[in-house]
Amino acid sequence: MIVNTSKRVFQVFTLNTKPKVIQLFYGDYQLQRTQEATYLGIVLDSRLSWNKQASKNKIETVQNNALRIITGGAFSKLIQAMQLQANIEPLTFRRKMVALKLIERLIRHGDFGRNYNPADYSPCLRVENFLRHLSPACYNLDLVLPVNKRSCIDTELRMTALATVGERSPEKHWLHVYMDDSAAGDNHNAGVGVYSRYFRLSRAVGANCTNYDGELSPYGTD
User: DSSP character for 59?
Assistant: First the structure.
C-alpha cells in the first residue's frame, strides 16, 4: 500500500491556549498540522468542543427539506402546515419530550437524587422520619390459577385475571373499576376508557397527549 503523503495531516487535541510547535514526519515528508479534521462524518476540532455536531439549525433544515418532498409543498408553504399534514412533530418538541422522559425515569430510579451530589446541591425531597405504626401492605403476585402467558390464548388469560380479581377482591366488598389508555404512536392522539358495573365512559385526552397523560386522565375525570 502506498500512502498519499499530500493528503496526510495530523492534529493535536488540547485546551492549552498556547499550543506548542510540533513537527511530525512520515519518512522524509513533514506532515501538515490541522485544527479541524473530519472522521466518519464527525468534525473534530482541536478543543473537542463538538460545536458543529450540536448545531440544531442544520438538522431542522434537513427535516424541513424532507417535509417539502413528502408533502410536495412549495417553498412558500408554512413549515407548521407541512408538519401537521405529514403528522411529524417538530424536532424542538421531540427534544423536549426526550428530556422529559429522561427526567421521569430518573425520578423513578430509586435514590438517584441522593447519590448525585454536585456542588451546592440541595435535594428536593428529604425524608426525616417514616411512620412506624403502619402495617405492611398485603399483596399477591400470583394468579389463582397456574397459567403460562406465552402458551395461553387471550380469552383464558382474561378469565384467569377476572377469577383472581373476584377471589382476592369480592364484589360485595369492592367496587371493580377497570381503566386503560391508548395512543397513536408515542406522543399524540391519546385516549382513555373506564368501565365498571355501574358506569362506563371513554374519551379523547388530547391530540398532543401521550400514554402517560391517558393514564393520569381517569383520576381527574368527573
Answer: H
Give φ, ψ of 64 to 5 degrees.
-65, -40
C-beta atoms surrounding 5 within 10 Å: 14
Question: Which pairs count as long-range contacts for 89-96, CB under 8 Å and 24+ apart, including other chains?
Answer: 89/187, 89/188, 90/60, 91/56, 91/59, 91/60, 91/63, 92/56, 92/60
In order of 60, 67, 108, 168, 186, the CA distances from 85 in angstroms are: 17, 9, 36, 49, 18
Q: Is the dihedral of CA 148, 150, 153, 157 positive or negative?
A: positive
CB 175 within 8 A of CB 196: yes
Q: Which three cell numbers stand for residue 51?
A: 460545536
Distance separating alpha carbons of residues 93 and 188, to the nearest angstrom: 12
The pLDDT of residue 75 is 78
- Give pLDDT, residue 220: 64
Taking the C-alpha atoms of residue 118 and residue 110, their distance in angstroms, rounded to an integer, is 18
Q: Which residues contact 208 (CB under 8 A, 6 or more apart)?
A: 187, 188
The predicted-structure confidence for 118-150, as pLDDT tens digits, reads as follows 555 565 666 666 556 667 777 777 888 888 878
Is the Cβ–Cβ distance between 37 and 8 less than 8 Å? no
Using an 8 Å Cβ cutoff, are 82 and 67 in contact?
A: yes
State the Cα–Cα distance between residues 169 and 173, nearest whole angstrom: 7
Most trustworthy range by pLDDT among 15-29, 154-168, 201-215: 154-168
